[in-house]
## 1
Amino acid sequence: MSNQGPKTLFDKIWSEHLVGQREDGTSLLYIDRHLVHEVTSPQAFEGLKISNRPVHRPEATIAVADHNVPTINRQNIEDPQSKIQVETLAKNTKEHGIQYFDLMDQRQGIVHIIGPEQGITQPGMTIVCGDSHTSTHGAFGALAFGIGTSEVEHVLATQTIVQNPAKNMRISVNGDLPFGVNSKDLILYIIGKIGTAGGTGHVIEYAGSSIMGLSMEGRMTICNMSIEAGARAGLISPDQTTFNYIQGRPYAPGADHWDQAVEYWSSLPSDNDANYDHEIVIDSSEIDPMVTWGTSPEDVVSVKGLVPNPSSAQTENKKKSIERSLEYMGLKPGTKITDIKLDKIFIGSCTNGRIEDLRKVASIVKDKKIASHVQAMIVPGSGLVKKQAEEEGIDIILKDAGFEWREAGCSMCLGMNPDQLKPGERCASTSNRNFEGRQGRGGRTHLMSPELAAASAITGNISDIRDFT
Amino acid sequence: MDKFNSLKGIAAPLPIVNIDTDMIIPKQFLKTIKRTGLGVSLFYEMRYDSDGNLIKDFVLNTSPFDQSKILVAGDNFGCGSSREHAPWSLKDFGIKCVISTSFADIFYNNCFQNGILPIVVSPEQLDQLMTAATNQIEFSIDLPEQTVKAGNHSINFEIEEFRKDRLLQGLDDIGITLGYKDKISAYEEEKKNKKPWLFKDN
């Protein structure tokens, strides 16, 4: 990468964090903030212990337990393995002087919800975490990506990561979003268009008036699912919406440095004539509310569409893949998406577990009841989201409609805790992955927006929010 | 870290695209605080029925593929989560090399941390190797030469030089980086002045 000439947002963050080149030709990139959770960190701390290495800068790391935690009766974790994992995190963080939000702390929640919520996530930073949805933080114009446990150990020991620059891809979405279409539909549409490997090797910068018109919550939903398009990181230019969101949060720059920080952040957006390896332009008027029908996030279709027919696939591999998905999902080709009957509704996750998502759901289900054959669960992304919702009376609206109101955590997005689908159960989920077995062995996941999931909870079928009054 | 140089053996064919990390190692096995012991749970839901009995026709449950050190798989192998449990479980099962047309970035990186060689080939080459694997033809993989041989097929593959060296020598990555400790400290000193809000240490 040249230091001369116009730069992308990614190029600017990259060069600002370059510590140097190693002799093997790789780059050493400085990491500003490291987020740690219970599932991917124990082996990293163990590695440090075996090699007798200290944590280089404990104060740049924040830890929380989220993947494994129960969403009810959490004073006592029943699963002995989960309990050990959570206790191990508490012990490791204490030993190394790392800030840890424990289960009884109101600030506890999904790691990618609490980073922004606490003001830890800021423009121009490099942020890593042993979790692929670290891409979420890119919504602030931070270079944020998921890493494996060996890399977690590397970051703990050195505050750097060994990296080679990614390629730049820009996806511009222009125009006002049509009625009923929001950020989740937008990102599902993008994944359907470029495929789950479409962004491999790239950082995706999202731009255009539809993107810049989104709230921070909406932007986080977009960047969160960059990994489902194969990109380790997503990025959105920081602007006044970003600065307003950050100001006053506990870990945000204080008054003494605020102006200086904003001045720096304002220099980050990509230069006008910056060069991208790939460019995709989308007109938002072509986007409908989207739903997945298969077992990969690229298996998306308009809620008004039909389950696809394998015989229409362009390659033999694709045909086989559709057949396999349909068999797993228990769906027949040509079925109307809105004829698909549901068993469960899951609202939550680092994709859609923020206060704005909960408000939308509440506005749709207010004074209504969920269908008698469905079970619906809502899991706030953090203790503070839960508290805020309760202050606004959202919990009452949801409970009156028949939703279960839970404690914060990753919950049924990945079903590491007791919240799981049973074999054959079909779920409308606001999470990010519809992989085979993801939400429970044999469970069938349809990804969609909180609005669609809320409407679907009431009717008991996958429903189009635009038909719902 | 484990070294990789060359490898000979039967390769297991797994002609499925988008094999994700949840398929490689489902979530219930991520509760461990160890790196080892995951091989028995590799591809759990494809390998065992809901009662925990072996599914006899799954490739890794059939001889001779149950001894495979090499896996030939469909496009975009290892997509999904960052869990290093995926390469840990492959390694613990005995698989030291995966061949596909493409790999997800995080999984690809994680392989090199664990002495596993991921090899990228073209779609046509993958078809040839998938057939060779199905026919139980012996594979021969040579990292220094960057070749995969199976029967009449001889394929050259690309790999970044630093990754190749790391596998050949089994280098300790953290040890190497700690050799640059002065540079890291100098970087931190410079940024403390330039961006003080980043060092207002919690």
Note: The longest strand of chain B covers residues 6-9.
## 2
Amino acid sequence: MKHTISVLVENEFGVLSRVVGLFSGRGFNIDSLSVAPTNDEKMSRMTIVTRGDEQILEQICKQLNKLIDVIKVIDFNEGNAIDREMALIKVTAEDGNRAEVLRIVDIFRAKIIDVTTKSYTIEATGAPHKIDAILELLRPLGLKELVRTGAVAIGRGAKGWKG
Amino acid sequence: MKMNGARILLECLKLEGVDTVFGYPGGTVINLYDEIFSFKDIRHILPRHEQAGVHAADGYARATGKVGVAIATSGPGATNTITGIATAYMDSIPMVIITGQVPTGLIGNDAFQEADIIGITRPCTKHNFLVKDVNDLATIVKKAFYIARTGRPGPVLIDLPKDVQIATAEFKYPDSVDIRGYKPTVGGHPKQVEKAVSLLLEAKKPVIYVGGGVILGNAADELTKLALLLNAPVTTTLMGLGSFPEENPLSLGLLGMHGTYYANMAVSNCDLLIAVGARFDDRVTGKIASFAPHAQIIHIDVDPTSIKKNVRVDLPIVGDVKDVLKQMLKVLSGQAEKAAAFHKGIVPWLQEIEAWKAKHPMTYKGSASVIKPQLVIQKLRELSKPDAIVSTDVGQHQMWTAQFFKFSRPRTLLSSGGLGTMGFGLPAAMGAQAAFPKRQVIVVCGDGGFQMNMQELATLVQNRLPVKICILNNNFLGMVRQWQELFFDKRYSQTCMELPIDFIKLADAFGAKGFRATKPEEVEEVIKKGFAAPGPVIMEFKVAREEKVLPMVPAGASLTEMVLAS
């Protein structure tokens, strides 16, 4: 089961390696991880997409909470959060398929951010499954390079994480 | 007052109530040692190896309940502390370890004696700190002690670069600590406590399963009160020994791989298991699927990650065990009628347990010609003082001590349970003796483990620490040999310590005393002589070479599949 967890941490030296070390040391999976500072400059926020059954997810959240530098762990359930990801995609775009690439970009409301006579570089944003979908369509046309940010997530509704 | 970082550290230690530290000097702590030279409020003990220094601080902490403190220099000094830190981490021992570090400007440059000790100790400390600014030092020390001793205790490392020791700052020790990501739970949830008591009172076949948390949380009195009030049987893990008096008929002794027949049978047949400060380690549970198969499980632990990690739990209570047990006692006191019915209800269960005890008591086959190691342990108990502290190494002798010494007081057994560190016994005893100069401190070790830290004889003699060292010498790495006998067709690969060492001469070389027993009738006399002699003593017992620790549950088997003493 895929699961998205937000981890609010002290913006201090070595915190990322504490979190990552916890996952590797205990054999937990990380599908993706993204981290950056928040509106409170002393705090960073990580979004971790992980896999495991209920018992493993419970352990992951408890173990994260046990780290001294972790301020809060938010375990997002299906439906109570919005997640988004960005991808930068370099595709082959020569005579035959230049128009096809543009059509796909248009359908997914993505953007062309760099052009050469042989390629397009695309910026696509959306829920991770939407990124998967555009990639599926672009792959047969010649995918040269791909960078994904990993998902970031935020809870739905008027309340912030502090409630 | 303005002072340098080295002095600030010492002032902080003093304010934390530290009276003894175990440390080893070196290039990046030379400034700290210069301050120690004239700082009279803290006793400094110099071990002969940093690992032993950390084990000594650990032994000090286990025996006293206070935070143990060790110091080492950067690089090799710091890396030598790792086994000691990992040992303390696995057994949740409160410690603060201070390591020197190369000057901040050189960090990351592969400088002389540089090691990334923060990176290296991240997975084996509760937390660690690199001090980059002398102005943060006092706050960091305050936090380190707070983290080490609260919640589930553990070791905390402070990495202190040389330039920070030299730099000066205004010294002010903070009165309180506020760490927003660290708020350990204290009291148990009242509803959960009430539910636990009613589950307990409905049970017909309860067992109380006690771990090291009861000792660490100073909750032995509350635990004993609860057991006596309920008249319920108690089994303990290795780390829990001493939390409930083993001479009490309700005691089932040790459970698990080398536990008693009756403890393992009781756990396998109980209808309610109440785990207090224990973590369902694989050496305790055996095969998880058949562990306590008929029981509802209540689990009390200060660390939420311990709960439901290995086994299913029907009723978790997160909280300090002392507080939770107090809460339970209070709830129980209002339910006298139910308690009376409960007492009647469990009589058949207690009878069943008595029958198991009669069928397979904890025993061994004696001998008139060769010293049985179990005999030595029994004689040690008989001839030692009631408040003696016993430290063990790791292996067969450790299990025999756990089985036959019969502990009755908390903090009288010091043993590396989680990590199983050979070489732990002697330095840990050294730390305990430094804390309690007047008490009898005994090490039980094998010939293998003793040789891992025997250099500490020098520390004992130099500091007049009269530790009594009992070596059960079988010229084997006995526990591994036992496994090779049982599971590897007696192929004794590298477990025979062929060189016969003269431990008596060794003692003499260090300025300690040595006595040897080779026959059963000499055991008592050697122990008496050893205990009577002033100063550190080695008592060597040439024991039956291929004696096995029994009962034994083979790794991965169910608790009921015991190999019993014939």
Note: Chain B has a mean pLDDT of 97.
